[in-house]
Amino acid sequence: MYDWIIDLFNMLLNFLYNLVVSLITMLKDLVYFMLEQLLEASKALVGMIANLLTPIDMSQYFTGLPSSIGWVFGQVGLPQAIAMIITAITIRLILQLIPFTRLGS
Q: What residue intervals traverse the membrane (predicted)?
């Protein structure tokens, strides 16, 4: 006679269980979404830093020198060497801002 109350209660329990499972899944998806956005932002930041550290074209600064000296500088790899030195100095200065990396300097 009162089987419909038991069925209604079982349906309510089933609904609440599905609701909890759905909420847990939604929270997991939210965490994954936030992690993905953080990784996308870090990827963009790394790309911007990589663009800043591209080798510098030093040939525009050697226009006042004779062409033979500019050619020798290019063959020796002076522009790439200067870019590497500037990059190393920049990285060292950035690392000085991070605590506990000042060991030995």
A: 12-32, 69-95
